[in-house]
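Hey all, sorry for the wall of text incoming. These are the two entities for the joint prediction.
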Amino acid sequence: DVKVTQSSRYLVKRTGEKVFLECVQDMDHENMFWYRQDPGLGLRLIYFSYDVKMKEKGDIPEGYSVSREKKERFSLILESASTNQTSMYLCASSLLGQGFSGANVLTFGAGSRLTVL
Amino acid sequence: GQNIDQPTEMTATEGAIVQINCTYQTSGFNGLFWYQQHAGEAPTFLSYNVLDGLEEKGRFSSFLSRSKGYSYLLLKELQMKDSASYLCAVFDSNYQLIWGAGTKLIIKP
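and here's what came out:
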């Protein structure tokens, strides 16, 4: 019954390393999102994508990039990891665009906890 | 700025009722979501409110007052498995989701 799968649950990387976080959904959803979740803060949107090869910046895109070559897969890339990117990263998908209110229930993956030393 | 406030942590007893409040100040309003997140797991959808009033789903109910910028999640007949964080999120006028920091609910026997 797995719907949104994040490839790595836990990662430990060193400052300056390139990091790839992979997310795959099997629900044929158009929209995919990457959030980070930090204690005491609400989820913050990094990037989202409405279609293959399309991407839009969220609230905190600095230091990140994304790739969506196939509909089911959305990758988050940290070109040069820094300690302030230590966080829980959540991938999510939804069927319709964000402009369609209540129909836009997000289905989340279990998260990837990244530690940058 | 846009802001969503929820209590950081609440404690309740198994079998009891608990109300988790959420107040919001956003640029416009196009609906409010509640999600449940167990520790180490994915958030899962609980409810959606766009009109004023109470929506009931089994043991869980969600209430909205748009004029007051206020919602609550009501959990009845609490079970140990209800121990989780509860996230409130609002669609603003641009249909961007604004998230609260979440309320950690601890259930004691």
